[in-house]
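Hey, can you fold this one?
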Amino acid sequence: MAEYFGSCLCGTVSFLVNGDFDNFYLCHCQHCQKDTGSAYAANLFSQSAQLVWRSGAGAVTSFTLPGTRHNKSFCKVCGSALPSTQDAGLLVVPAGCLDTNLSMAPTAHIFSSSQAAWSGEFGELPKFEGLPD
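Sure. Predicted structure:
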């Protein structure tokens, strides 16, 4: 069984996921664009993995957009996205909050009809190892 460790940006919250992920979706829906401030959300999904809060469970809060199933858990201190358990026991883990290397590649783009006009293939853009001068 796989083990994945993760945490928030400020380090208040840390967690362990025991088990495997079923899917790794890049979601382009407008809700995910709003709550990430980016072109898409990168989330891992599992019906069987178990989430264990290692520290800071009291600093985890959740928001569900009224009238939708869109839910986001985050750290009350720094605002970092954190795992959440959805209806029917579905575990959703934002890929960026993992501290363990993930060998799984994204399995699909979802809600691509809502893709931001400015997102797309950027193979020709310059690349920098850090912040450009």
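The helical segments are 30-36. Let me know if you want another pass with a different chain boundary.
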